[in-house]
Amino acid sequence: MAHERSPLRLVPSLSVAHEGGGATGPGALGAVEVLPGQVRAALMSGAGSVHERAEARFDPAAGPGAVDAALAEVAGLLVAGAPVGVGVAAAGVVDPAAGLVVEVNEAPALRGYPVGRRLEALVGVPVRVEHRARVQVLGDRWFGPGRGRRSFASVSTGEVLGVGILYAGEVVAPPGGRSGAHMTVSASGRRCTCGRRGCWKTVATTRWLRERAEELGLGGDVSLGALVGAPGNAAEKLVAEYAENVALGLATVQQLFACGLFVLHGEAREGGEPFRALIEEQLRADVLGGGEPVRVEMSEAAVDDVALLGAAGLVLSAR
Length: 319
Description:
Blueprint lengths: L28 E7 L2 E7 L5 E8 L6 H18 L4 E5 L2 E3 L4 E4 L11 H9 L3 E5 H12 L8 E6 L4 E6 L2 E2 L34 H10 L8 H4 L5 H25 L3 E6 L5 H15 L8 E4 L7 H11 L3
Parallel strand pairs: 1-4, 4-7, 8-11, 11-12
Antiparallel strand pairs: 1-2, 2-3, 5-6, 8-9, 9-10
Helix pairs in contact: 1-2, 3-8, 6-7
């Protein structure tokens, strides 16, 4: 896969599969998500409906043989469904051109793992690999709020933070690029897990929300959903602060790429319309004028399907 990419297009030979159970037949899409210790796979229709699922676990501290075994376990589902291709949404640092998972801090077993080559050998169809936070924008582009748009952003929130950007019809995925969690938003901010200070991740994830809630006397085991609408000024202020922190990183993305639309996934959905409105209001206040007004929308996809939909979108976006 070359680094320079042509505009995304629907492959003409793909057709929408039937909605029954069992193998989906011609036109089916294979989708795989690779996480530390877990591999998830699905057969999907060209319309984004999940027909069948499989998953397997492996010891993230083991060697690559453990990942091989997990892939082989889920590959049977894909082989039976005869997909036209397989897309892989992988955690960590990814080299899409080589089909490699370069490194995942929490999973030494995935370091340098050639997931693309392994899956091609198992399934016998073309495989494309991309970072899971970046690839989810393709799920929104083909199956969600981004349909018909050539530029917008898809945002992961919660324990994992990241942004996937579609710009002028192409996923912004330069070699060595990341998903934005470690962009600096405060030079003197908190120490991040990467060793640097002030990363966006340090103020806009579930970990920060729980730590801040404990500091405010709200308890350390809280959820965004429980905080929204909870009585008391402390909860209200915390929700507003969290929304401001999420918008802080998105404002930088908007300034650079003029996305116009941001689709929120993950924990943000627990906050519902009040949380969405707070982020949109803050984002509009933070960015300069010009261009279309910034909009923020919530994803309608089930949390567990976001990365799989993006992986299916990789197949649809193949040349």
